[in-house]
Predict the structure.
Amino acid sequence: MTVNDAVVKRIVELLNERKMTQYRLEQLSGIQHGHMQWIMSGKSKTVTFSTVLRLASGFGMTVIEFLDSDLFLFENLDVE
């Protein structure tokens, strides 16, 4: 799984956990709808660290908390 795939899975996981809509996350994080759609559809091949920071902020958590998932373990990722 790519890092981008892991980010999308983590977003979906947190949205479900918090019973939050993608639209609400966009509002809270300041990420434009088009960009979020691009990420969620898998068209984005490079989710930047600043985007991860915004996502974490939108969920009301630190970036460390956002990344605190087995999804981001080295052995679970295709890292080049």
Notes: The CA atoms of residues 36 and 75 lie 27 Å apart. The two ends are 12 Å apart (CA to CA). The mean pLDDT is 95. The longest helix spans residues 3-17.
